[in-house]
Amino acid sequence: GALASFTGICRADDGLRAMVLEHYPGMTERALRGIAQQAVARWPLSACTVIHRHGRMLPGDPIVLVLTASAHRAAALEACAFLMDWLK
Questions:
Q1: Displacement of CA 66 from its chain's centroid (Å)
Q2: What is the DSSP letter of 14?
Q3: Taking the mean position of all CA atoms in its chain, how far away is CA 56?
Q4: Distances in Å between the alpha carbon of 50 and those of 13, 35, 66?
Q5: Which residue in 17, 42, 53, 86 is a FRET match for 59, CA 20 to 30 A apart?
Q6: Chain segment 19-53, per-residue pLDDT in tens
Q7: Is 48:42 a contact under the CB 8 Å cutoff?
Q8: Rounded distance, CA 6 to CA 42, Å?
Q9: 13 pLDDT band (50/70/90 cuts)?
């Protein structure tokens, strides 16, 4: 089996000093849950987690965490990549 993970980091592109991400709580959680459910339906995952931060972040701060687990390495990696592509 395999556990795949991705951690997105706030970059300092173009001299960025800080970034503020806003969200609509009910809508955001529903969208994240929906995309995770798509991954679970598409690949044989035993677990899937998506965490996306909001608020003020500085360069180097983590923004997003995606974790996928499967009895099959390819499924865990492909599902993790799918989720990150969607979030990006």
A1: 4
A2: G
A3: 18
A4: 24, 9, 5
A5: 86
A6: 999 999 999 999 999 999 999 999 999 999 999 99
A7: no
A8: 19
A9: confident
Give the type of residue at 68: T
- Count of residues in the chain: 88
Nearest Cα residue to 72 out of 50, 43, 37, 41: 43
Q: Do the beta carbons of residue 4 and residue 76 sit within 8 Å?
A: yes
Distance, CA of 85 to CA of 52 (rounded, Å) = 14
How large is the greatest C-alpha to C-alpha distance in the chain, in angstroms? 42
Contact by Cβ (8 Å): 1, 71: yes
In order of 60, 65, 82, the CA distances from 18 in angstroms are 10, 19, 28
